[in-house]
Structures are given as C-alpha cells and as structure tokens.
C-alpha cells in the first residue's frame, strides 16, 4: 500500500461513519443501507476486488439512499410537506 492509500482509507471510513451517524439520527431504514455500504466498501478494499464492483456498491448503498435523503430534505425545507 502506498502513502496515499494509508491516509485515504481511514479518511473514507471516518466520512462514511460520520454520514452513517447523521443518517441514523434522521431515518433508521436508510442507515441500514449506509451501514451495509460501509461493510462492502471495507471488503472491497481488503480483498482487492475488481474496480467495476465498486460502482455497483456505490450505486446501491450510497447513491440510492442519498437521493432518498435529498427528497426528504426537499420535502421538509422547500415544499414544507413534512413539518419539521
């Protein structure tokens, strides 16, 4: 492992964990996807999977929940559909 990977892996873990905790406070069911995404990303790094697998992991466990969260935030703060 090079020097960049030494710092990027803990940084990615810290960002993912922080985001997981933030989402856990908001909505429980979405945070399960984030948790599983963090687990699969860890396996991806540790087992040196093919790089194409990462996009599947990111799409299922990061992009989909992020879009759902964005929709929830838009409903709360822009459309005032859900009272906060």
Automatic annotation (TrEMBL):
InterPro entries, per the entry: TMEM107
Keyword Transmembrane helix in annotation: yes
Keywords, in A-Z order: Membrane, Transmembrane, Transmembrane helix
Transmembrane annotation, as ranges: 20-45, 57-79
A Pfam family the protein falls into: TMEM107
Name of the protein in its database record: Uncharacterized protein
Organism: Hondaea fermentalgiana
Record lineage: Eukaryota, Sar, Stramenopiles, Bigyra, Labyrinthulomycetes
């Amino acid at each position: 492992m090079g020097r960049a990977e030494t710092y990027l892996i803990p940084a990615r873990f810290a960002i993912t964990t922080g985001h997981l905790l933030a989402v856990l406070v908001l909505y429980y069911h979405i945070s399960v996807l984030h948790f599983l995404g963090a687990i699969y990303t860890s396996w991806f790094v540790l087992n040196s999977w093919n790089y194409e697998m990462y996009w599947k992991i990111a799409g299922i466990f990061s992009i989909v929940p992020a879009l759902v969260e964005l929709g929830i935030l838009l409903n709360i703060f822009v459309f005032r559909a859900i009272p906060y």
